[in-house]
Amino acid sequence: MSKMELRLAGSGGQGVILASVILAEAAVQSGKYTAQSQSYGPEARGGACKAETLISDDPIGFTKVQQPTFLMALTQKALDTYTRALPENCLVLVDEGLTVPENLNGHRVLRLPILRTAKETVGRAQTANVLAVGCINALLGITDMETLKKAASLHIPRGTEEINLKALAEGVKLASAVPGEGNAPAARSEKKKGAKQ
Amino acid sequence: MDQVVLMQGNEACVEGAIAAGMRLFAGYPITPSTEIAELSAYRLPQVGGKFIQMEDEIASIACAIGGSVAGVKSMTATSGPGFSLKQENLGYACLAEIPLVVVDVQRMGPSTGMPTSPSQGDVMMARWGTHGDHPIIVISPSSVTEAYYQTIRAFNLSERYRTPVIFLMDEIIGHLREGMQMKEAEDITIVNRPTVQFPDPKRKPYHMNEKKGQMVPQMAPFGCGQRYNITGLIHDESGFPTNSTEEAEKLMYRLMHKISDNYKDIVRYEQVNMDDADVAIVCYGGTMRAAQTAMEMARAKGVRCGIFRPVTIWPFPERELTAALGGLKKIVVAEHNCGQIVLEVERLTRGACPVAFVGKYNGAVITPQEILQKVEEA
Questions:
Q1: Mutate which of A8, A37, A158 to disrupt the B interface (most B C-beta within 10 Å)?
Q2: Which of A36, B192, B334, B337 has the fewest Cβ atoms nearer than 10 Å?
Q3: ipTM reported for the complex, 2 dp
Q4: Is B175–A34 a contact, with Cβ atoms under 8 angstroms apart?
Q5: CA distance A190 to A144
Q6: Would an 8 Å CB–CB cutoff place A39 in contact with chain B?
Q7: Angstrom distance (rounded) from CA B46 to CA B27
Q8: Cβ A36–B290 below 8 Å, yes or no?
């Protein structure tokens, strides 16, 4: 596997750091190397927030994203900021409410109802970050669903397991509904696992 | 069996401290060190230890010193602004020979600077921050795993030499999460301070058997039955102040030499691909990660590049760097400040080879490309 460089961006309080931590945990639980970091302002809520997860089969030197292979943006500001000079092969996932800037013409951009599904289907807006994790894993095939659930359970607040696992599953559903994602790597690897048994 | 867990640098520091025997943490939270206080508050009660949030950073180090005097391994943690405040009591702990670990997770300064941005601007403050000549040990980790094991070493050294040890992290490692290799508890060496076996009111608290080559006095924990005086004034073996120039020289000589004479036990460094290197990158702490990638990029281009990394930055591994100078055509020093360790490297190279500098002080991290550029420049 080549190196994955994931960047998640949004507004402070949306939980993008936690999402990035769960993805890093999923990588460690799958025996991969990972480096997770974040940058944010001094505010507790609001303000730009960026979290990064590197995943690799080899030990990781530089711990920051240099050539993102995946970008998720949950706010317009985050999208506009981090899409400058984006490598061509970078997959971009944005919330449906955002306007995709022109410089992303030529990129593969997925606009999915992340925030709305969390609020309306899962029933709690705060689960959007975990929902996004489910979606990202289904798109990128970082790990299998069981490991992802375990990774999420290790980091979400106690007592919120049920609603967050629901969000995780809804995220997977969102990704599988995307045309051309029927054979996403995650789906493939799960099938393989099933075949072995 | 060794297992890999996802952990943050700050968390690894706490787990290492607890493994080393820390049972008191006194602190005042400050970004980017806050997770150290947070996790200490959670973990210490589980192992029978105590966490106290003090009213400020000065009180925090004073409390940790008090805990250590009572025989409990103690730690405090802060960032630049708090580290400034701790300097006075740091000198007190040096002179009174109180084992103590002080963590500084560096952020952009001066003053409150940029709280969430990386920096390595406290390197010289860690060495010279408190007034007067004084011994100091400063350790800087460059991975989460190293944060764990070097925190254990920081405690061990502070106990063995009865001296404060500064654990100088930076935001890059403090806030980095990565897989950490954990050893079983029995594979970890724990050092405890030299302690008096039988409290004796007649025993001088700073007495030493110099004929046996002893350089660190045995400590009697407060509460054990032996009452004695501890002071920040120059004192003799009785622990009481003295104006004797003879006693002053004796004490100062011993304080400095208990560290310098044990150079080999204290100093740690890492060399990567230095055997055939034409160019050496000298860096420490979180900057190592960019240097590793820069070195790989340089090697891929056919440039024979290596890395020399002090793990203890004070005392600086000067014998080893000097020994490595032989075949070098250039040294590139990379650090997140306007130039601090580069001065030490220039002092040691004495013009034997050119020293280039990559310094960043705008709150952003040094990239591998920035180091590579200096490596490649003729």
A1: A37
A2: B192
A3: 0.92
A4: no
A5: 6
A6: yes
A7: 18
A8: no
Domain membership flag for residue B192: no
Question: Three-state DSSP class for B208?
Answer: coil
Residues of A in contact with B372 (CB under 8 A): none
Structural domains counted in chain B: 3
Strands A70-73 and A4-11 come out as: parallel
Q: Are residues B164 and B285 in the same domain?
A: no
Question: Residue B204 falls within a domain, yes or no?
Answer: no
- Neighbouring C-beta atoms of residue A13, cutoff 10 Å: 13
> Which domains can be identified in chain A, with CATH numbers?
4-196 (3.40.920.10)
Give the global pTM: 0.94
* Integer CA distances (angstroms), B156 to A107, B37, B279, B311, in order: 54, 21, 35, 15
- Report CB contact under 8 Å: A62, B172: no
What contacts B49, CB < 8 A, 6 or more positions away? B18, B22, B23, B24, B25, B43, B72
Cα–Cα dist B80/B110, whole Å: 8
Task: Dump pLDDT digits (tens) for B291-340.
Answer: 999 999 999 999 999 999 999 999 999 999 999 998 899 999 999 999 99
CB neighbour list of residue B133: distance below 8 Å, 6 or more residues apart: B252, B256
A61–B31 CB contact, under 8 Å:
no
Q: Are residues B55 and B168 in the same domain?
A: yes
The DSSP result for A76-95, as a single string, is HHHHHHHTTT--TT-EEEEE
